[in-house]
Amino acid sequence: MAGIERPAKALTIGVHVLDTMVRPVETIPAGQGGALVEQITVSPAGTAGATGLVLSKLGAQVRTCGVAGDDPVGALLKNLLERDGVDTSLLHVIPGEHTSASVLPIRPDGSRPALHAIGANQYLSQYLPWDELAEVDIVHLGGPEFYGGRVCEAFLRRARDGGAITAVDSLAPGNAAALNYFEAALPEIDYLLPNDEQVLGWTGASTLPEGCLQLIERGARCVVATAGAAPTVVATADSVIEVPSYPIDVVDTSGCGDAFSAGFLRGITLDRSLEEAARLGNATAAQVAQGLGSDFGLYDLDSVQEFITTQESAIGP
Fold it and tell me: Domain range holding 61?
């Protein structure tokens, strides 16, 4: 597609969560014991919420669609998204329900387990925005397993027929059965954005490139698989490339996958090559990983591009 000169219009749909992060945590105190930590903060999260927030930081015009409860957690989630420029008019509030939330004890190396309450997200399938697809450049569906493959297939087809780029990021676990939740939608997905554990688990492949190609054979047009600090794999029917991540001091990996998705898709709207878009995705994820939460960092598109230039100049030819 040609680069979009006006602000790219993005619609992110699916999972919205409010994360509470605590760091550093090495052990949970026993009984009624306590421990001092350096930082506790909250952040919008989820495959739709966090991706929309980062897309907005990178200069896209973002509406996000999903569900929240009518509780203080939902009000805070909505306010934090709006603070970073996201239009939350399609974030439906369900009376009497609590908002999806997680507590993340962050280990010193940046990894973290998660304690999660699914809350209002269990009602996501009732709120696909069928009538909100006009003049949208990107439709990003975060959590197709909540809707089902045939519904996602029809929805994404309508989006593509209207001229939108379609992207999907799943929360389904890395096992073969989980792919069944949305495999029917693969032919309508322009960019499938899983992680390495999902790809290997869904396909049973022995290597990440092999697994990505299996998903291409099943219908996805392009598979872009992140792998932590290892190179990102970008696969189409014509090529497989590996794009290195950037070396940084990791504080927290929460939201890095969503930040990558946002950076990659922003690159696509700017008419970047697949490799360049993946570099922008990796660089955006690197900004988020240096602090707590999906909303960490005061970056914009220009500063992320400057980060790429500086990093690659240091590496040399």
Answer: 9-26+39-315
